[in-house]
Design goal:
The protein contains 15 helices and 12 strands. By secondary structure, the protein is an alpha+beta fold. 51% of the residues lie in helices and 18% in strands. It has helices at residues 21-38, 51-81, 123-126, 140-153, 201-207, 220-223, 228-236, 267-274, 282-316, 323-333, 340-366, 373-390, 398-408, 412-434, 444-454; strands at residues 2-7, 12-19, 86-92, 108-116, 130-137, 156-158, 168-175, 188-189, 192-194, 215-219, 249-261, 436-443. The longest helix is centred in the middle third of the chain and has 35 residues, at 282-316. The strands form 3 sheets. Strands 6, 7, 8, 9, 10 and 11 form a 6-stranded antiparallel sheet that branches. The protein has a 4-stranded antiparallel sheet with strand order 1-2-4-3, with helices on both faces. A two-stranded parallel ribbon has the order 5-12. It has 3 domains: 2-116, Trigger factor ribosome-binding domain (Alpha-Beta Plaits), CATH 3.30.70.1050; 131-140 and 284-454, Trigger factor, domain 2; 156-261, Transcription elongation factor, GreA/GreB, C-terminal domain (Chitinase A, domain 3), CATH 3.10.50.30.
Length: 455
C-alpha cells in the first residue's frame, strides 16, 4: 500500500492511496469463509454453504467493505501521523471507471480531496486593544417599573364591568357576511384579547366603550397588531393554511373582562417574591430589586462586550478558507439535498462561525487552556441546579444530583455543548486579560438604544 499527497494550492490537497491486491486478498478470503459459516441458503445446511458460491454471490460486497475499512483506517492514520490539520472531512473523488470484481483481483487507486486549515496570526491582541465596558445604572424609573411588574404578577384577578387599557377581554368571535349575518359553517372562536394589542386606535376606543354582552363588528385582520398567520392560530383557532379561506368580517361579543388588581407593597408581597421573612420592609425590598437589576444589566453589558470583542477580532484577523472545498463538503455530506443557491446564501454564516472556532482553538492551544473533567461535571451540576430552581426546587439531594449529572455525561452532544461553553468562557477570560477595558457609565435607556441600533 502506498499513500502520496499532492498540494492543490495553499488550502487544498489530494491524497492518493494505492492498494495492491496482496494488501486485501487474504483478508477478503478469510471474510468469505467466515460468512459461509453464517449465511443461510436454500438447499444447503447451515454453515455448509461452499465458499465459492458465497464468493460469487456476496464477494463483491465483502471486497467493497474491506476496501472501505482499509481506506478509512489508512487515511486517518496518515492524517494523524503527518499532523495534517484539516477542515471538514476528506472527500472521496468519484471514479466512474472503477469496477470492483472479487473474481478478478487487481490493484486499486483511490483519491481524496482535503480542505486544509489555514495558518494565521492573532496579532490584533498583541497591540492590547481598548474596549468600552458599560456600567449600566438603573434609575428610579426602572426600579419603579420592576416593582409594578411584581405587583401585577402577584396581584389578584378581578372582573370589572368596563374595559381599560391593560385588561384582557374574553370575546366570542363569529364570522359574518357583509351584512353582519352569521355564515353557515363559518369560523367561530372564543379567544382572550389583550386590549393593548389592538392596533387601530379608533377601533380600540370603540372597543373600550363595550361592556359585558355588548357587540361590535370588526375587520379581524386589521383588529390586532399581528400578521395573518398569528391571527389564524391565536385568535381564530384555525390552521395557517386555511386563513385565506376566511373572510374579514366578524361579530365580536364581550363575554368577560379580566383585570389584575396590583398587590400592595407590603409584607405579604415581600414574602411572595423572596420567601417568608427574607425581606422586612420596603427599603430592603427596593434595595434587593435594585441589586437584581444591576446584576441583570451587568450580564447584558458583558454580552455586549463579548459581541464587540468577537466582531473586532474577526475583523482584524485575516483567515483564508478553502471556500470551494467547504461548499462542496457541505453539499455532499448533508442529509438533505442542498441547492447551489442555498449554499451561497448560508455559506457566509457558516464561514463566520468556522473562523471564530479556529480563533478559539488557536487561543486555547497557544495558552494551554484546557477543560478538566471536574470542571465539566460542576458546570453540568450548576446547569441542572438552575433548571430545577426555575421550577421551585431549591434544595435537591446531592446523591440524586450526582446521579443525574452522571447520566448527562453519557450524552455526547450535551458533553460537547457544555465543553464548548466552558472553553469560550475561559477564552474570553484570557482575552480580557490581554485587552484594555475602559468603564463607561450609561443609562438603561441609552444602552437599549445602542443595542437596538446594532441589530
Amino acid at each position: 500500500m502506498q499513500i502520496t499527497q499532492e498540494k492543490l494550492g495553499d488550502l487544498k490537497a489530494l491524497v492518493k492511496i494505492q492498494i495492491e491486491k496482496n494488501d486485501y486478498q487474504t483478508k477478503v478470503e478469510k471474510s468469505i469463509k467466515d460468512y459461509s459459516r453464517k449465511v443461510t441458503l436454500k438447499g444447503f445446511r447451515p454453515g455448509k454453504v461452499p465458499s465459492a458460491i458465497v464468493k460469487k454471490m456476496y464477494g463483491n460486497q465483502i471486497l467493497f467493505d474491506e476496501l472501505n475499512r482499509m481506506l478509512s483506517e489508512e487515511l486517518n492514520n496518515y492524517i494523524k501521523e503527518n499532523e495534517i490539520d484539516i477542515l471538514g472531512n476528506p472527500l472521496p473523488q468519484r471514479n466512474e471507471s472503477l469496477v470492483i470484481d472479487v473474481l478478478e483481483p487487481k490493484d486499486y487507486e483511490f483519491e481524496y480531496e482535503l480542505g486544509l486549515a489555514p495558518d494565521f496570526e492573532l496579532s490584533f491582541l498583541k497591540k492590547k486593544p481598548s474596549f468600552e465596558q458599560f456600567k449600566i445604572v438603573p434609575d428610579k424609573k426602572e426600579l419603579d417599573e420592576e416593582i409594578e411588574k411584581l405587583q401585577k404578577r402577584f396581584g389578584t384577578s378581578t372582573n370589572p364591568d368596563d374595559i381599560e387599557e391593560e385588561d384582557i377581554v374574553y370575546v366570542q368571535l363569529t364570522e359574518t357576511d357583509e351584512n353582519g349575518e352569521p355564515i353557515d359553517d363559518g369560523v367561530t372562536n372564543s379567544p382572550a384579547i389583550p386590549v393593548n394589542m389592538i392596533s387601530d386606535e379608533k377601533v380600540k376606543k370603540q372597543f373600550m366603550k363595550l361592556k359585558k354582552d355588548d357587540e361590535m363588528m370588526v375587520d379581524i385582520f386589521k383588529f390586532m397588531d399581528r400578521d395573518k398567520s398569528e391571527i389564524a392560530r391565536f385568535v381564530l383557532g384555525i390552521d395557517e393554511d386555511k386563513v385565506d379561506q376566511v373572510g374579514k368580517n366578524f361579530r365580536l361579543k364581550v363575554e368577560n373582562i379580566t383585570r389584575i388588581q396590583p398587590a400592595p407593597v407590603d409584607r405579604e408581597l415581600f414574602d411572595k417574591v423572596y420567601g417568608e421573612g427574607k425581606v422586612e420592609n420596603e427599603e430592603e425590598f427596593r434595595n434587593k430589586i435594585s441589586e437584581e437589576l444591576e446584576n441583570y444589566y451587568q450580564s447584558q453589558s458583558e454580552r455586549k462586550l463579548i459581541a464587540d470583542i468577537v466582531e473586532k477580532l474577526m475583523e482584524k484577523t485575516e483567515i483564508p478558507l478553502p471556500d470551494t472545498f467547504l461548499k462542496k463538503w457541505i453539499q455532499e455530506t448533508n442529509d438533505k439535498e442542498i441547492s447551489d443557491d442555498e449554499i451561497e446564501k448560508d455559506y457566509p454564516a457558516f464561514a463566520k462561525n468556522l473562523k471564530w472556532s479556529l480563533i478559539v482553538n488557536k487561543i486555547a492551544e497557544q495558552n494551554q487552556i484546557k477543560i478538566e473533567a471536574e470542571e465539566l461535571k460542576e458546570r453540568m451540576r450548576q446547569n441542572v441546579r438552575n433548571q430545577l430552581m426555575q421550577y421551585g426546587y431549591m434544595d435537591f439531594p446531592d446523591d440524586q444530583m450526582d446521579a443525574y449529572v452522571q447520566n448527562l455525561l453519557k450524552d455526547q452532544e450535551q458533553v460537547r455543548q457544555t465543553r464548548d461553553l466552558i472553553l469560550e468562557d475561559k477564552i474570553f477570560d484570557h482575552i480580557k486579560s490581554e485587552i484594555s477595558l475602559k468603564e463607561k457609565e450609561i443609562s438603561v435607556e441609552k444602552f437599549n438604544k445602542l443595542i437596538s441600533k446594532e441589530k
